[in-house]
Amino acid sequence: MDHIRNFCIIAHIDHGKSTLADRLLEFTDTLEQREVKEQVLDSMDLERERGITIKSHAIQMVHHFGGKKHILNLLDTPGHVDFSYEVSRAIKACEGALLIVDATQGVQAQTISNLYLAIDHNLEIIPVLNKMDMDTAMPEEVKDQVVDLTGCAREDIIEASGKTGYGVERILEEIIHKIPPPTGDPEAPLQALIFDSIFNSFRGIIAYFRIFNGRIHQGDHVKFMATGKEYEADEIGILQLKQMPRKMLSAGDVGYIISGIKSSKEVKVGDTITHIKRPSEKAIAGYQEVRPMVFAGLYPVDPDDYEDLRNSLEKLQLNDASLSFIPESSAALGFGFRCGFLGLLHMEIIQERLDREFDMNVITTVPNVSYHVITHQGALLEVHNPSGLPDQKHIDHIEEPYISAQIISKSEYLGPIMNLCIEKRGELKNQVYLTSDRVEVTFDMPLAEIVFDFYDKLKSISRGYASFDYQPGSYEKANLVKLDILLNGESVDALSTLIHRDNSYNFGKRMCVKLKELIPRQQFDVAIQAAIGTKIIARETIKAMRKDVTSKCYGGDITRKRKLLEKQKKGKKRMRQVGNVEVPQQAFLAVLKLD
């Protein structure tokens, strides 16, 4: 065990984690020259196209140093705030972390939150200054920021470049010197923590684990403690670019197990594997349960695909434990699922993966957050969906979730950022100048306000410089109303929203105007109305497509024309009673992009 090092790479989005991981793999000859490509560990097409890491990836490297062979287990983690749950899982399986900071951009919000996560788990931190080959690098200023943040000595900060490979050798030396080897007793009963899993259509479910105590051999009878299910370890092994089978793995190792599990419900991330003959007394303390931030309904375009969608979501949940879903039904869209996501990017990625990996075409409803409704009897109801709201007469008040948001930006953009946060009902809590031209502001604001377009607006007003991170806070009392959208007097439940009373008129008006553009014209007039309870606050009308029935009357008395128009009018009235309005998918998505 003295020769094993388990470490992860943490950083803000776009600071060059995956590129630096590529150089480490090349330097340790884990990659052959013909296998070299950009972002080796980003296995999804989606990750390459967007240039972001979505999944944590584990890989084992062998490095010869000081005449000894060292085994290095690396976990490359995502940097976006929506995937911070992946980071927390990777940190749980490690003893150390490389903290990567971009020398051209400096410390950003996600750098800080990931660092605190690593410090909470007592990880050894090695700070690395990446992108030193860039002309715009500011090493001295950024080193000051890193020293302030981590309290390390200036000479401990490693200068490196993921692009050219500069500094990679020193990083590997520091990993071996500074990161402690795993502790654990190979002779104790087996305790292995499952930190990830994937679905393989031929082999069933493959679980990735980290052994804390004991040993596991191929063919052992093992038990998963959370589910109580028993299996045989058909194949165990280590994770390199491909899965490499091994006969035995011991304490400190990171590996995988295949035991022919077919049902996705049987594998839970955070579960402990132990032996049946000599079981461990207690399970390893798992991860904190993930708390979804944004809720949206996913419905199959074809109602017959409901079961297929359920299977697809279960398989996706194996690969992404932060996705949660429960069945629900909607009058407009039929049967579907209410899904919980960590943010809007997470939601977008899940939708895209369902389409690519499972060929599932889905309709997504307007994302919202969960509210607490207090009734006059004092009962507390948790509402995820505006249609689940009880009648107004039963409601005493509604509470909405608040977050504590940290924004780091150049001080010249402070004014517009303040205006944006105040516009979103934010309340300034703290303002700290990190350097003469970098400022950190902390706001308390409603989660519902940042769900839609907050991040996009923040990036555009700060020219991409501002970085944003948030922690969930408490529930606060709020003046919220349910805004319904009516088409010809019929409520479309998928378009209902809970909104602050002050913003409701403006939002309702914009919704009606937008839907007027998107809903195709029918053979009859379509009234689009926004209503709070029984009060209509905005209306637009889509005029009917009309045939010119009077064209054949080229003279004579007006009553001839009148008679034809009256006949048409009756037909339109009858058609309106039986006709229904199809709402296109763009209309549900357009609500997100009202600006």
Number of strands: 31
- Proper CATH architecture of the largest domain: 3-Layer(aba) Sandwich
The first-level CATH class name of the largest domain: Alpha Beta
- Main sheet characteristics: 8 strands, antiparallel
Low-confidence stretches: none
Task: Determine the mean pLDDT.
Answer: 79
Characterization of the model:
The protein has 5 domains: 4-178, P-loop containing nucleotide triphosphate hydrolases (Rossmann fold, 3-Layer(aba) Sandwich), CATH 3.40.50; 191-275, Translation factors (Elongation Factor Tu (Ef-tu), domain 3, Beta Barrel); 294-367, Alpha-Beta Plaits (2-Layer Sandwich), CATH 3.30.70.870; 372-478, Alpha-Beta Plaits (2-Layer Sandwich), CATH 3.30.70; 482-593, 2-Layer Sandwich (Alpha-Beta Plaits). It is built from 14 helices and 31 strands. With 595 residues, it is of the alpha+beta class. Helix 7 (306-319) crosses helix 8 (344-358).
Features:
single chain, 595 residues, alpha+beta, Rossmann fold, Elongation Factor Tu (Ef-tu), domain 3, Alpha-Beta Plaits, 8-stranded antiparallel sheet, 6-stranded mixed sheet, 14 helices, 31 strands, 34% strand
